[in-house]
Amino acid sequence: IENQLTALLGITPSHEVNPDEVVAMGAALFGKQLESVDSSTKTISDVCSHSIGISALDEMTFKKYNRILIKRNTTLPAKTCLPFRTASENQEKIELSVTEGEFKELCDVRIISEAEITLPPNLPKGTRVEVEISLDTSQLVHLWLRIPSVNYETELNFSRISNLSDQEVE
After folding, report:
1. CA 87, CA 168: separation in Å to the nearest integer?
2. pLDDT tens-place string over residues 88-121
3. Interval 16-26 mean pLDDT
4. φ and ψ at 107, to 5 degrees?
5. Under 8 Å between Cβ of 89 and 127
């Protein structure tokens, strides 16, 4: 990275300053710039740091894949709703994994939460299931599952799966 920056900028990057302090100084300079801007036009928006999706079943291959619902760099808050269909007659449950990452293969993304949702009985194959997902300004994920044909709705509350085990946190 240092070589590429040197080639791009024509100067060698300095190693004399603590990276945390540099970020703080940059934020302070940006804040100073905002002072001179008309207050009615001041806005700072956060964006989604990684794409958020769910594991979905490919109807052709019957293989699960990462279906991105909110793309990386989307301005927060963000919300989207996509229709899916039940895969079998009288399907009793849906296993839902919420993903974080840019790739289609599930092995290449991080599973941030998993849930098993019990469905109403006697649903025919191909019943429309709507999944609505939102990401608030704190980057917290909220998810709703709706089946309009039977007036069914549930909100999924889940804990985000951490990268660290309880022992590692301690």
Report:
1. 39
2. 899 999 888 999 999 999 999 999 888 888 999 9
3. 83
4. -70, -15
5. no
